[in-house]
Each structure stands twice: as C-alpha cells, then as structure tokens.
Design goal:
By secondary structure, this protein is of the alpha/beta class. Helices cover 24% and strands 26% of the residues. The longest helix is centred in the first third of the chain and has 14 residues. It has a single domain, classed as 3-Layer(aba) Sandwich (Rossmann fold), CATH 3.40.50. The strands form 5 sheets. The protein has an 8-stranded mixed beta sheet with strand order 3-2-4-5-1-12-13-18.
Length: 289
C-alpha cells in the first residue's frame, strides 16, 4: 500500500476507567467476600478524580442504562460531592428519538469526565449508537485528555463485542450467550462485570472462543481496569481481573450451537491479576478502511 494511503489508528489521549460494579462508596463490605487489608472506601472514585487532574472538574453522570435514573444520579452525586466536586451534571435519555432531537453537544465539549452508571447495557448501545452524542464523545476521547468511566453495564458497553444476555443458568450450553456491538471505545475486547461474584467465567470464555481475535476482561466487583493510550492497562481495587485470550485455542465446540451441548474449549489462556498489576491489550487486528 502506498504510504499516503496507509491507514493508521490514532492513539487515544483519553483514559478509560472500567469498573466491575458495586464499587465501595463509603465503607460497606463487598458482598460475600472479605475485603483485603490496605483497601480503603472510595478508592476507585478517588482514583477516577485523580486522573481528571482538574481543581474544579465538571463531571457528567450518564444514567441512561439505569431503571431509575434519578436515584442512580443522586447516589453518585452524593459520593462526588463528599469528595469536593462542585460541578456535577446529569445526562439521561429515555428514547433514541430524544437523543436525536436534544442537543447536548456543548455539555459533551465542556465536561472533563463522564461516568456511565449501571443498568442495562443494551439501552446504551441502542439509544446512543450512531448518534452525534456518541461521535462527539469519541472524538474527545481520541483527541483530548478526558476521563470516561463506566460501572457494571456502563463498563460492559465500552467495548466490542458486548454481551447483552446469557445468565449462569445457560452459560454452560453452546450458543446461549447473546452478543452485539458495543460503544467501541475498546475494539476487540469483551468486558464482563460482577465477574467472580456472579460466576461468569464460562460465558466470557464462550465469547472469546467465537471471537478469537478478541481478549476478555472479567472484572470483579469493587475492582477496575484503567486504560491509557488505548492499550496500557492497570488493575486497581480490592478484587481481581481475569484476562482471557483465545489466540491459541486449538479446538472448541462453540459452532455446535443448535444442539445445546455443554461447551468445550481447549488451550484458552487465562491470567488472574490483582491491584497494581499491569498488562497490554494486544493489537492483533490491523486497522483498515
């Protein structure tokens, strides 16, 4: 390919904070597990604010995924106010028509950080996919040092592919996990949250086996992955992150989805990482037009 026609992928200037859900908001015990020593309440939220690097930051909390947007907003507003943040906005859209008609471009351009709450990740992709809102947010993520966080469903929506259905009752069976295109701040990465607590190992493994160019990030509650430069990742929080890759899978039966058989996958690679561990998100799929 001639040099002037070569396609290059820009390195994002923004930072992603991908949270596994139920982050500690002030001293509560993480359900069904003991918090290790040395971890403090609000650790993830404090790290989020430290990354913003502003004396008077403007944070937009996006509650579109939540079934009760006002309650979710007030919950996070209280946390950030207790940490000294004075400027906190609330973005919520109930329908796709609403986001197409409402101009929030000035708010997207002015904010220093964005926080996607939990709920239903399919609401985020079906409402925001292909909109000016998402395009403007992505442009800023690529060109400016903004911070975008997501927790639970808000975290799962940040990548592609994105799981939107398939619980523990069916994850053992081939073809029972439903996947779509996420908001694609991370490409060729599948994020699953509440990972250890809800026993989601096999459902993420199925996604990786059917999309072997991808890696999987299974993030436990009160735990986050910080991504800078689009590929440099660091774990923070009191739990663990499971990193899966299927590059060397030699065999699986994921294609036999019509018979609902228990899944088999051979030579799946798995790493278990805890606080302060780092890794690099592999780039195996060259950019193209």
């Amino acid at each position: 390919m001639p040099e002037n026609q070569a396609s290059t992928c820009p390195v994002p200037s923004g930072i992603l904070v991908i949270i596994g859900g139920k982050e500690n908001k002030g001293g509560q015990q993480v359900e069904n597990r003991e918090t290790p020593e040395g971890f403090h309440p609000l650790q993830i939220h404090k790290h989020f604010l430290d990354l913003v690097q502003k004396d008077d930051p403007l944070i937009e909390i996006i509650t579109t995924a939540s079934g009760d947007g006002d309650e979710s907003f007030e919950d996070y507003k209280k946390v950030f106010e207790e940490m000294g943040v004075k400027r906190i906005g609330h973005i919520r859209h109930e329908t796709r028509k609403q986001v197409l008609e409402e101009d929030v471009s000035s708010r997207v351009k002015e904010a220093n950080a964005f926080f996607f709450t939990g709920g239903d990740q399919l609401l985020l992709t079906s409402i925001y996919g292909g909109t000016a809102f998402l395009t403007e947010l992505k442009k800023r993520y690529i060109s400016e040092r903004i911070v975008i966080a997501g927790t639970s469903a808000g975290a799962m929506a940040l990548s592609t592919p994105m799981i939107y259905a398939g619980n523990a009752e069916v994850q053992l069976l081939t073809g029972q996990i439903k996947v779509t295109t996420g908001l694609e701040f991370l490409k060729d990465v599948c994020i699953d949250t509440h990972f250890v607590h809800r026993g989601r190992f096999i459902r993420l493994a199925q996604v990786i086996a059917t999309n072997a160019t991808c890696i999987g990030l299974g993030i436990e509650e009160d735990t986050a992955v910080i991504v800078t430069n689009g590929v440099d990742a660091k774990v923070i929080g009191s739990g663990t992150v499971i990193v899966m890759d299927g590059f060397n899978i030699t065999d699986s039966n994921v294609r036999d989805f019509t018979e609902k058989r228990p899944v088999t996958i051979r030579d799946l690679r798995v790493d278990i990482l805890a606080d302060q561990q780092t890794f690099t998100i592999p780039q195996t799929n060259p950019p193209h037009i």
